[in-house]
Amino acid sequence: MSQESNNQYQDFLNWKELGIWEVAKQSHTILTASNPLCGDQISLHCIVSNAKIEIESMNGESCSVCMASSGILFSRREKWDLSSLNRYQGFIENFLHDNRSFESFNTEEIQFWMLMKQNPGRHRCAFLPFQALRKGFLKEEKA
Fold first, then answer.
1. 1 belongs to a structural domain
2. Inter-residue contact 17 to 71 (CB < 8 Å)
3. The CATH number of the domain where 32 resides is what?
4. Mapped to the 3 state alphabet, what secondary structure does 35-92 carry?
5. Long-range pairs for 73-76 at CB < 8 Å and ≥24 separation?
6. Does 126 map to a domain?
7. Does residue 77 belong to any structural domain of this protein?
8. pTM of this structure
């Protein structure tokens, strides 16, 4: 269970369950990110259309923090463009570094990122799904 307590571990499982953890049948693009330091790997199965990316499902082998973050990212059910991803990640990073408010975020997001604020060594795990999603925009720019 690594560093997490039993209660935190249960929270991570609940956050993970906010996502769909199977290979989507309709996905057009698979965006993958990995952390070679710990072996985490996450794949986002997405539909890409008009410079927007929608996560349909996810899979991979990763720690509870990465899976929980993936579930929370999925639960927003957005059609992401690069601007909205940058804005969302910027809000989170500002909160983690200088106590900015999370007023517009749902309860699960607030609880997860509050816990991440107390565990800065796990930020890399928490942002791995964001790295995978960002790769979709890099592919769009090259096309």
1. no
2. yes
3. 3.90.1010.10
4. ECCCCEEEEEEEEEECCEEEEEEEEEECCHHHHHHHHHHHHCCCEECHHHHHHHHHHH
5. 73/19, 73/129, 73/130, 73/133, 74/18, 74/19, 74/20, 75/18, 75/19, 75/106, 75/108
6. yes
7. yes
8. 0.84
Answer yes or no: is 82 within a domain: yes
The token pair at 120 is 């800065």
Structural domain range at position 51: 6-138
Cα–Cα separations (whole angstroms), residue 132 to 35, 55, 67, 138: 11, 11, 13, 10
What's the domain count of the chain?
A: 1
Written as tens digits, the pLDDT of the chain (143 aa) is 345 566 665 777 777 777 777 877 776 799 999 999 889 999 999 988 888 999 999 999 999 899 999 999 998 888 999 999 999 898 888 888 876 666 677 788 888 888 899 889 999 999 999 999 999 988 655 54
